[in-house]
Specification:
mainly alpha; 2% strand; 215 residues
């Protein structure tokens, strides 16, 4: 009998949607990382650059000008050089801050999360706005303005900035929803532990009272 190949399992619509969401998150995070490191942030966490997104920015900037073959790509390639220099500078600042903290030297600053995505430089310009609002709203809008301005003399540069603006907006919204979910999970876990502790005290009430009555 001829060998019959079993049909390949088809991905469910939910799996397709999950894959598309992952691709969107990766693309948005890559564009956002360039803007955060090069233009908008400082004082990053020690492990912020130890991610695959840092490596994806390099081929992204090298390939992006291909869509405009008749245009001079030097503007975008200059961004690649600026990004690499910014990464080196921020990494040096991170190591210096860590060294000061280990030695207990003044000026080390507070200990921050190792994956902290940076302090907004625009915080001084908008002192009445919180850090989350600046990252979610102000920075993408400023990047949008950069993109529209750059379109007047370099389409590839302008469109790259526009994609960075969209990436920053999507990336920060995803991070915000993730942190909100973490906060809700922590609150739920706290409430559940408190309810469990109450049940334990009710079941062991006599033992607890005897234990507390000891000198």
């Amino acid at each position: 009998m001829p060998n019959q190949q079993s049909p390949q399992p088809q991905a469910s619509p939910l799996q397709n949607l999950s894959s598309a969401a992952n691709v969107l998150a990766i693309a948005a995070g890559t564009f956002a990382l360039f803007a955060e490191v090069t233009l908008f942030r400082k004082n990053f966490g020690a492990r912020y650059f130890n991610t695959w997104r840092s490596l994806l920015v390099i081929p992204l900037l090298m390939v992006f000008p291909i869509a405009w073959p008749r245009e001079d790509p030097r503007f975008v390639y200059f961004l690649l050089l600026l990004f690499l220099l910014s990464c080196a500078w921020h990494r040096l600042c991170t190591l210096r801050r860590r060294w000061k903290q280990l030695k207990g030297l003044p000026g080390a600053g507070p200990i921050i999360h190792s994956q902290y995505n940076g302090e907004p430089r625009l915080a001084r310009r908008f002192p009445k706005l919180g850090e989350v609002t600046i990252k979610r709203v102000v920075e993408p809008l400023v990047m949008l303005g950069f993109g529209l301005a750059a379109l007047t003399f370099s389409p590839s540069l302008g469109w790259f900035f526009l994609w960075c603006s969209a990436g920053m907006f999507v990336h920060t919204q995803l991070l915000y929803m993730h942190h909100q979910q973490q906060s809700q999970d922590l609150v739920d876990a706290t409430l559940e532990s408190e309810q469990l502790a109450v049940r334990v005290r009710e079941e062991r009430g006599d033992v607890v009272r005897i234990h507390r009555s000891r000198p």
